[in-house]
């Protein structure tokens, strides 16, 4: 298998994977809840929001799996999502949201961490 990780899974990768699993499950539950509660009052909106959150939750579960197993595609998805987070945070800061600075710092630190040699080795990158 070309996607087999090398060495031991880095501790922070394990923690991120667990957070992705938990976040994914909670987001799917939120989607199901939003879909059922809002559909009664706002028919189309509830269904659209419910589906949106369920899809986000499924993406989080896939990312968590990729991190946990050390799949090369998991590393790439992580880098892409963190880069999108940086862009989103910068755009929010430009329009005046000072709270996005925390998100920016977290995403930059995660990109830095994901590019460390032992992490890249785990993902086979």
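^ Assign residues to that structure.
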């Amino acid at each position: 298998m070309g996607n087999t990780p090398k060495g031991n899974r880095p501790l922070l990768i394990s923690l991120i994977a667990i957070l992705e699993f938990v976040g994914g499950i909670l987001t799917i539950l939120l989607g199901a809840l939003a879909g059922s509660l809002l559909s009664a009052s706002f028919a189309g909106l509830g269904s659209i929001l419910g589906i949106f959150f369920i899809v986000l939750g499924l993406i989080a579960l896939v990312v968590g799996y990729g991190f946990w197993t050390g799949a090369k595609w998991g590393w790439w998805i992580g880098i892409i999502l963190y880069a999108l987070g940086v862009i989103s945070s910068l755009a929010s800061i430009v329009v005046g949201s000072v709270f996005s600075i925390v998100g920016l710092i977290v995403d930059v630190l995660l990109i830095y961490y994901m590019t460390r040699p032992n992490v890249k080795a785990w993902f086979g990158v």
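Helices lie at 11-41, 43-69, 72-94, 100-114, 117-123.
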